[in-house]
Amino acid sequence: MSMNTISKDSHYKLTSGTQIPLIGFGVYLVPPLLTANLVYQALKAGYRLIDTAQIYRNESEVGEGVLRWISENPESNKREDIFIITKIWDSFHGYESAKQSIKASIKKICVPGIDYIDLFLIHSPNSNKQKRLETYQALQESKDSNYVHSIGVSNYGINHLEELYNWKDLKYPPVSNQIEIHPWLMRSQLVDYCSRRQIICQAYSPLAKGRKFNDLTLNSIAKKYEKNNAQILIRWSVQKGFVVLPKTLQIDRLKSNFNIWDFELSNEDILSLEHEESYFITGWDPTLYNG
Predict the structure, then answer these.
(1) Smaller CB count within 10 Å for the chain: N or C?
(2) 275 is in an annotated binding site
(3) Is 56 a known active-site residue?
(4) Cβ(240)–Cβ(260) under 8 Å?
(5) Which residue has the higher pLDDT, 111 or 218?
(6) The one catalytic residue among 56, 136, 147, 156
């Protein structure tokens, strides 16, 4: 995608044929009591992708926020303009457990007016080969049901992805892999692998949880473009070709995080931000899991 044509309305096309927005609002650690309003405010601010998960315990509230936005102006606010992601948690791996957890998520999210989940992911590979493949089989069946439009994975390393591609029952290859990515955790080998397989990488914790906001290069670039540090890092992810998933509990930051469309980082500035050899993980890293 050319940076000259990129805008808030830009999308990537998944191998499933559906379109995914470039920026999403993540609701990890967002309390259920705050979720519906923050989702609504995110949609008001221009976001069209909402990322939740079973373990976040706010799937129902995501649905409430989406419905509030739709009902505010049904003629222009359409369900088909929104992209909803959720994920199967590790303790539900295995065919029967996964099927039941998928049904539970569908029941929470797919209330009248929403009707389907755009993308369902396996949250991490933290079980074993048999359970992972059984879980993916349950996801494939959910896609056949039309309640789920696309399926994929999260926190998968190359070995986990190869496991899927070597599986004789693979019917729908993963369209996306959601992983922690930022300039201090670039995962170039994994990103390159995903690119070759036409798997879109989604970047969570794209701000490195603010732990690099004192970086001199980042501060200098932010000053140059008259933007804040978060906007620079989000723009970096977009220009690298990732779907980026910033999160915040603050409505003003929610709005500013989305406003990254009126500038473009130079190639020189992109390179100066990057730390190819760095391994600055801010949470867990199941991509390294060997079980």
Answers:
(1) C
(2) no
(3) yes
(4) no
(5) 218
(6) 56
